[in-house]
Batch of 3 targets.
Target 1
Amino acid sequence: MEPDPDTASDLGLFTSIAINSNPPTTTVHISYYDKTNGDLKYISKNLYSSSWETPIKVDEIGDVGQYTSLAVDQFKKSYISYYDSGSGNLKYAANAWSWRNKMIVWGGFDGTNYLNTGAMYDPVGNSWRSISAINAPSKRAYHNAVFAEWVDSNGRNRSELIVWGGWNGSQYLYDGGHYNPALDQWTPINTVGAPIPRAYHAGLWLDFMKPDTGRRTREMIIWGGAISGGFTLDGSRYKP
């Protein structure tokens, strides 16, 4: 017997389970109804991992999540049909990496102070909530931020905001952090081998298959920007 993956409130009604068979990332997926809050929830666990992922609220608008039916494909994408008891409608949700799209705003300059706080906006609920400032990067503006999606060494899907570089009013920066919206948690970025401090630089997240090896590569590219004394034409690659 394994410990309960979700112990909050009155859970487990209308449960559906599916397993994708794609070693070494074979994963158990479960959808279920949170009776206390009237939410549809989802949780997953890599069979080679010792712990479950953080439970996710797939839909929390009204009383939703009864009669769930879950299916997955070989790419670990999940599909859930479920009942909305408020409207009486059949509903459907699918995910590639995350269930709901949200906007994250972080850092910047308010005209007087540099900031290291932020918030998340949910367009479905038309609502904002503050994000944690614990272990967040230092105050800055003119930094770069990309939303990154990759599979870690434990076979877990990771969807995180990566912030790097910027200007704090007195110096250029070469540090940053990862923000995990599911855990509301920051993790510092390793600065060993990082590019020279800069701001106003370009950055993007790449997800591609190398034609020579057939291996998939996911990494952040940083290039150019303003540095002490002028501008630079160099860059670097970062793998989370």
Target 2
Amino acid sequence: MEYQLRAKLPRFKHRIDTATKILLSFTKGGDCCDRDRVRTGRVAPPQGEHECYISISWGKDSTVLLHLAHSVLQAVNAISVQYGTPCGDDWNIEPCDRWPDLTVVRDEFLARYPVNYYERFVESFWYLCERYNCCPITVDMSGGGKNIDKVEKIFLKSFSTAIDNEANRRHFSGNIMGMRRDESRNRQRHFAMRGHTYYNADRSFWCCNPLYDWTGDDIWTYIVKHDLPYSELYDASGFDRNTLRNGLMIGGGMMRYGAYVHLKRMYPRLWNEVCGKYPYLRAFAG
């Protein structure tokens, strides 16, 4: 009931109007790009000569962004990166590579809201840890923890490279993202310095964040208002659904967030399957 009431408030309507204006301005090369062009000296993407894409993880923020873009723009492109183990020309998906119901969220959304959707696969964090003989959690239990920083850098680099390669292959020149400033202090500083629209010189892409000033409550109000699918991870007791992220299912960071306990409680069969491969994880779920 709380979210239904929030959806009627002028403040929430203003959030949608502002995000819509940012989306339209960015995709048409409008005034929000012009301001950044003056600040950086970069030429804003001209109208009619560029296409944008949305980075989608099927978490709450990017799902809301994709729906908003679908309702505002005539055509929407979306790129998602999945994790797996290379097997010839195909990929094997290990049970610990991603949260179980994200594919359900993806399939339900795409069935209701058709978009130009593209997926790329990269080597999973677990696969890289095994290759470099290091423990995929912050506690060194295998004697190979010295390589964990190297693995993290390789994994993050492969993730961003996969998205950029797909975008370049399809001649996209603008990236629309679901980052919000209330998610962390680093993002607050990021938006304070660069604004919601900026040119990323390292990636050679224009980037836009229409939801930059939304709160977690705004996100959930939008989800409830439009009855959008979302991962049951956000309904887990003991977690703040406004700040919880659907990142790596298992890893050092998720251990700190208590995700192992959640995984054991909500997906007992999957938990036993994962622990069959990595028995030492049981020590971190009580």
Target 3
Amino acid sequence: MRRLRWRRTRDNADPDDDGDNVADVADPFPNDPTEWADDDGDGIGNNADTDDDGDGVDDVDDAFPEDPSESVDSDGDGQGDNSDADDDGDGVNDGIDVFPDDPSEFADLDGDGIGNNADTDDDGDGVDDADDAFPNNPSETNDLDGDGLGDNADQDDDGDGDADVDDQFPTDASEWDDTDGDGIGNNADDDDDGDGVIDSTEIDCGTDTLDANKVPSDFDNDGLCDALDNTDDSAGDGGSETELGWTNAVPGFPSLFAAIALIGAAFAGRRKQD
């Protein structure tokens, strides 16, 4: 009995009964030198407890094993994801980040579940971004004239000054009219009205290049229009030729000229007799 009394006296005097260097007043396990803390108060000391903070995540997998409000730190910035406004640390707040746990993605324009950085067709219009003049606009893909306005909205796709509704070649800036409807624009066509006479000849002969009913006249059929031809070759080889010009350009002009000459002679004779 004397020995037992001595031991009790000794424990009462020792501020650290189990000698684990944690004072008994602060030691949940004052008589267990292997334990001195029980963070989650489950009666299992932290050293033996596989989940010290009792948050349901084992310590080995818990970035904050002694904080029951945190268990993950996705970006490794020392702030748990529950309190971190930008979990993946990509500079975009979680509230507007479509991929809050993926630092390589934050937007998904077409909502296909693939982030824009990895998506080859961000706007989901069926045209790859590399070939899409408007990769973020699903309603536009081309800008033929490079004016910054997509062809779907642009009223003059080729930018030639002719509205598409009036342009027979809306995607060709070098053409807009095709008078004879032969599929060749007037600028490239050497016979705009399709009358069989090339435009340069009609211009030289003074006829309309855009009116198939207006062709140069050629009295002697020598291939040279009357406006440029001063000789009537209709007599053929060996025949007499008639100088064209005012005398033959106007029908009946030779006879009229002769009649005027006779009248003039007669008038002159009468005055002489008087």
